[in-house]
Design goal:
about 240 residues, alpha+beta, Rossmann fold, five-stranded antiparallel β-sheet, 13 strands, about 30% helix, elongated
Length: about 240
Amino acid sequence: MRDQLRMRLGQVWPELEIIGEAKNGDEAIELVDQLKPDFTFLDIRMPGKTGMEAASVIGNKSNIVFVTAYDAYAVEAFERGAVDYVLKPPELERLQITVDRLKGRLDKPASAAPDISSTVTAMLAQLTEKIATPKPAHLQWIQASIGQDLRMIPVEEILFFRSDEKYTCVQTEKYEALIRKPVRDLAEELDPALFWQIHRATLVNVNAIEGVTRDIRGRHLVMIKGRSDKLEVSRSFLHLFKQM
């Protein structure tokens, strides 16, 4: 995520100098004290101190932009002048709005800036209450390679995943990409209502299933809408299609 954010910030604000990166909230606090950046981008959930805890300590030492997947309430909580938010994955159009706000902050004298500490504290109290017992978040996008290019693929666009010994193929309607994450890990991170595991090496998007057929060997095969692919269903997963 840091790589993506750095790359996209470079696209919308080429003059921006990134002077430090932290792996967790504790490092973020230390770097802010040492480097005194104008702006700090914080994820909400990080190892050690969370982004919210780090923001409480950082206070008004730096203008804070939260990077968060909690869109259900982050939009309402962070849509203020003192602190901005960016939903993951960071989109260029939304980052441009953030950059414009940050540039406006640079143009204002320090005496005219709002009390960031009090603003952050109020929002953190609201957020802490709302995510005290968060539900596990499912993957919303996949970072995959196509040749030398890196693609951010929304999971809804993926028809199926199919693994071999080294890579996992990510198949969309328009192209095929590769990732190193095995199907067994993807099965734990994707929404089980959207992706069904039909084989130890295959996950399929339920919305992409046209039907199930049998070949001359008696194997059950999933047919994919608009494609010639037929994905084998192992016996341990046949129960998924009892109603079909």
